[in-house]
Every structure is written in structure tokens, then in C-alpha cells.
Amino acid sequence: MITLPNECYYMIFNNLWPDHGNLFLCSLVNRQWCRLIIPILWNDPEEHFTDIRLIRIFLLTLNAEEQALLIPFNITLPNHPKPLFEYINYITSINDYLYYGIRKWLYDMKYDIKYKPFITEYELENAVKCSLITMFLRTNKNLKYLHLNGILCNQLILEGLYKNNTITTITTMNLYKIDDNFKSKAIDTL
Q1: Where is the F-box domain (predicted)?
Q2: What does the pLDDT look like over 133-146, one tens digit per residue?
Q3: How far, in Å, CA of 120 to CA of 92, rounded?
Q4: Cα–Cα distance between 1 and 165 in angstroms, integer?
Q5: What's the pLDDT tens digit per position in 156-171?
Q6: Which residues of 96-125 are buried (b: 16+ CB within 10 A; e: fewer)?
Q7: pLDDT given for residue 184 in this prediction
Q8: How far is CA 74 from the centre of its chain?
Q9: Residue among 147, 178, 153 at smallest CA distance from 69
Q10: Which residues, at least 6 apart from 50, have a Cβ–Cβ distance to it below 8 Å?
């Protein structure tokens, strides 16, 4: 039996990329195929960001500092075991779909601010956005495109942007106030 080199399999699987369903089924054939297909599937999960299961996977990757941003909001983090693959490393772009997914996850988890008089819906959503963006900047070595829409930037995000040298495009719409003490150093450096 003749086996193909991984590069050939990769080219074949990459041509199946638009058909996520069949590509996923191919990943179940054997370990070799799975290792080749998972990075292709997770390369640009754009429209799948709205799936709350992905938000749960992302939340599993938060470190203590990123989790601390969520403590004032009493957000319960998932306690599942860490995923087999480091899916986050394969993602190359973050856009508005992630933010829609966060809103959907908060709604599904029934995080309601009606009973928290000093917390606004925006603050709750922003805390999750900041935690996840900080985690992506810390862990992802393939991130090329980052869309920061309507985020109140904090020091962790700006430090992550400073340390991450793979991002080639950052777009912002409604980027809200940045902490003035850190702003000048970070913005000048970026």
C-alpha cells in the first residue's frame, strides 16, 4: 500500500474546506487525518462563533488573570476538561461574530442584570469580550485579523496587542475610552 505524504492530504482536505460537514466526517477516519483537518476547520470559524458551544470552549482556556475580569459579574465558567486540541491556535481572524456569540451565550446562560442594580448589560458583555480577546492575544500565534468593536479596552488587551506580533490588521469601530495612565505608553508603542 502506498501512503501519501501529509502535504498531499493537506492540499486535498484544504480543497474540501467550504464543506465543513464532510470535512468534519473525514476527521473521524483516523488520527492522522484528524491532526490535518482540525487546523483547517478552525482556521476561520467565522460564522460558527455564534455557536455557544465554541464560547464555552474558549472560556476553558482563560487563565486566572482573565477569569478575574469576570468575578465581579458572578459568571460561572464551564468546568469541563480542557479540549484535546488547542483550537484557539488555529484561528486567524476575530470579528463581530464572536461578539454575537458572546451575547447569545450570556442570554442562554440566563445572565440577567435586572437583579444587579449597579451592573449594566454593556459592562457584563464587555467583561466577557475583554477576557476572551485577552486570551486570544495571549495564546494565539496565528491571529492575523482582529476586529475590536465597541470594546472598552483595558490594560490587558493593550499589553496583549503590544506582545502579539502576528496581527497584521486591527479594525476598530466604537473603541471606547482607554485608561489614560496606560494609554500614552501603549498607544505610542503600538
Answers
A1: 3-44
A2: 999 999 888 888 88
A3: 31
A4: 44
A5: 787 888 787 788 888 8
A6: ebbbebbbebbeeeebebeeeeeeeeeebb
A7: 47
A8: 21
A9: 153
A10: 97, 100, 101, 104
Does residue 179 have a pLDDT over 80? no
Task: Tally the C-alpha atoms within 13 A of residue 147's C-alpha that lie toward its C-beta.
Answer: 12
Report the mean per-residue pLDDT for the chain: 81
pLDDT in tens, 53-97: 888 889 988 999 999 988 888 888 888 887 888 888 888 888 888
pLDDT of residue 187: 53
The domain locations on the chain are 1-42, 44-189
Task: Quickly tell me which residue has 471606547 as its cell.
Answer: 176
CA distance linking residue 108 with residue 110, whole number of Å: 5
- The CA–CA distances, whole Å, from 87 to 38, 115, 178, 184 equal 8, 35, 30, 34
Cα 136 from chain centroid? Answer: 5
Contact 22, 72 (CB under 8 A): no
Please name the amino acid found at residue 183. K
- pLDDT attached to residue 27: 92
